[in-house]
Amino acid sequence: MHSNRNGYVFVAPYAILFIIFILAPVIMAVILSFTNFNAIQWPGFVGFLNYINLITGDDVFMKYVLPNTVKYALIVGVGGYVLAFLLAWGLSNLTKGPRTVFALILYSPSMTTGVAMAVLWKIMFTGDQTGYLNSWLMDIGAINEPIIWLTNVNFLLPIIIIIGLWSSMGVGFLSILAGLLNVDEALYEAAAIDGVKNRFQEMIYVTIPSMKPQMLFAAVMQIVGAFQNGMISTLLAGNPTPGYAGQLIVNHIEDYGFIRYEMGYAAAVSVVLLLIVQIFSSVSTRLFGEND
User: Fold this and answer.
1) Per-residue pLDDT at 1
2) pTM reported for the whole predicted model
């Protein structure tokens, strides 16, 4: 009993912070999702009306927001995860000095604040001839007049995806790199004796099975980061984005919660987002979790 008390004492700081900043907000969001709440008057219970309206009455969500989010999550989440593994695997074959330099270069965009990121990419995609991309394309004769990139519904989502990939090499990328550098070399020798002949087979049969915890952590971080990333489109094109071309679920929540002050409906959308993230996280756990 004495050792249990000591354990509770050590766990208490984390448990308190978890309850205050994670568990309580989630519970409150679920409760508010069943209400009509404008942030001023007392919430009124409406049952499942917010969820029914989300599925059957919110054309913007079903036509633009959900497809945009799925597309963004698949490319930036899944594609970024594969890219992070390939880049980390390439860096693991370098010597310590170059590996450290390139790892810092790849990791640094993930530490860039949203405002700084938007300023950098707005210069790149400025919609006149002073924009770097327009200037370069006009110099080589690819276009005759500047393209207004950030208001064009055909280009806005691809631009957001490019920026998302550029900034997606975060802690998940570092965890994969750390896992690659800590695989026991004896396993590769044993695999060579058993018939493994090339680096690709080493990756499939030795490397990935040996670093499943790092792979799982990176997968969850990539998924959560992809679904939570709505700041880029807001800073580049405002909220809502032109023609809802770059509108993601997070932007939809901000639109209803902090612009229209329909907090109950925004809470319902946030609960749906939580369920989607949980489903993808469960899939990642099944793929990379330990069976024992």
Assistant:
1) 62
2) 0.86
